Amino acid sequence: MITEKKEHIINAAIELFAEKGFEGSSIRDLAARADVNVAMVNYYFGSKEKMFEAIVEHKASFMRGKLDEIAANPKMDELAKLYAIIENYVDKILMNPSFHKILYQELLRADRATMHENIIRIFKNNTNTIHDIIEQGISKGLFREVDPRLTIATMMGTINQVMLSKAMCGMLMNEEQGFDPHNNSAFRERLVKHLKQLLHAHLIQY
User: Domains in the chain, start-ordered, CATH in brackets?
Assistant: First the structure.
């Protein structure tokens, strides 16, 4: 029951932050949106910043399970694992565009350094898993010597840049006004194919 109530408040917070932004939302607004009292929000989360961190942890933990499952799959080599990770990340952003837009807008801000450090810490386990897969591919001779961290940044940066701005996406893809990448299966396949080609060229081709 407690877990369900917390998840209900978290989902309400995602909707609210998507509409009004983190800065423009208050605990009172959040309580009203979730149809709970302010005391309950404070009891579970303590502050708006801790609420945001809880949202990030909630979303990151789901992806962490997917990454661990992929990393432990003995039937996949390291390249196949990275391909599976690309598909999962693209699908994750397609299903939750509002959350990811809020997250990256917040991380671009210069203030709230403590909260940003906590968010980075939450995601660190996820990126470490991808880092280890790339390192294993290098040690086996499947991949050439690359910088794993910058490889991850290239993968994630490309996904985020394309998926988080409809206007930017439309411009980059030469699509008509009003194009929505989040509701276009053909575009999803196009992006995944491009990312796999990009990764293959970076890791394997000399």
Answer: 1-46 (1.10.10.60), 48-203 (1.10.357.10)
